[in-house]
Amino acid sequence: MEDAVSKVAGEDKKTTLQLGGHRFAQESFKNNVFQLVDNIYYSTDNINYTFGVDLMYTHANSIYGSEVNGRFHFRPSDGKTAMQNFDDMKPYAYYREVPLMSDPAVVGKIFNAGVYGQLQTKLAQGLDLVAGLRLDYGHYPTSPLNEELLKEVGVRTDHKLKSFVVQPRFQMTWDVNEERKDFFRVGAGIFASDINNYMTINNLTFDGKHFATVDVRGADVPTPNFVDYRKDPSSTPTLAQFQVPTINTYGPDAKIPVVYKANVSYTHFFTEKLKASLSGYMNLGRNNYMYVDRNMVKDPFFRLANEDNRGVFVPAASIVDGAPDWKKEGFPISLVEF
């Protein structure tokens, strides 16, 4: 195996090599879900009613495993290819998420409850209405307060995430003159979404107490001993002097995503097997969530004129050999807020 060389903007670019990681080998997710759904149906001469309740509890026991085994990086240097440096066991960087406790498993307890009612009736000749209302409540696990982080950065890690969403919905269908040839439909509603449980697992796991990040370069990188690592995983370097925690936490105004939907359509049947339709749909999402660097600067430190004035959001002093080193002074801290 040899390093590949590519021509980019007239310059030779060589490959680097990474070894280690097994990024998801030891992950474990065990979810026990208990759900109770009960419906009651009641009909009169003109209206059919449906009432119901939906209760669900999720007990999630999760062990994070990404990057826990450690990863070594090799690259061309001193006239040698990345493969030659690998043969010499001379990596330039080492990265690992180090468990800070013997059992880093976290338990997420998620409770969702919904109650709903629906009616179906005929308003006029050929005009049918289905209307309903659903109320949903969700309660999600919260990380404990990290006092040290609050003191140093001013960010709380104990913000709660819960939701109560009122969701009216309706659908009207008009069969013109009840001839089964021309149909008009219009409907709209509000729908509560849910969050990916992995997001809550991340928040519980990366609270500064379960894992710490090790990312070293140059003289701080240990000499790899892959054979011993496989024989005894506990011998994988932990480099306590370089450990820095990563924090994931809910933002103070975090909300559950909500979707608004509406539709209108017209359908004409030329025959029982041939029809044509004209439809319009609208979807609007609110409260979508994302991960952001809480301490990211608002404006770039400098811009690259040869790359369409692209902004660089780290100081030049933190860029070593073309790669940013987040441990250097002035680099945004690795704090992620949802």
Number of strands: 21
Distance between the termini: 43 Å
Query: What spatial order of strands do you see in the largest sheet?
Result: 4-5-8-9-10-11-14-15
Strand percentage: over 45%
Poorly predicted runs = none
Order of helices and strands: EEEEEEHEEEHEEHEHEEEEEEEEE
User: Class by helix and strand content?
Assistant: mainly beta
Average the pLDDT over all residues and give the rounded result. 87
* Number of alpha- plus pi-helical segments: 4
Bulk shape: elongated
Rg, rounded, reads 29 Å
Give the % helix: under 10%
Major β-sheet profile: 8 strands, antiparallel
For the structure shown, list the relevant keywords.
single chain; mainly beta; 8-stranded antiparallel sheet; 21 strands
Would you write up a description of this structure?
It is a single chain. With 338 residues, this protein is mostly beta strands. Helix content is 8%, strand content 48%. It is built from four helices and 21 strands. It has helices at residues 82-87, 147-153, 197-205, 226-231; strands spanning 5-8, 11-14, 17-20, 28-43, 47-63, 71-74, 93-99, 106-124, 127-139, 162-175, 182-192, 211-217, 247-249, 258-269, 275-286, 292-293, 302-304, 310-312, 319-320, 323-324, 335-337. Strands 4-5-8-9-10-11-14-15 form an eight-stranded antiparallel beta sheet. The model has no long low-confidence stretch (mean pLDDT 87).
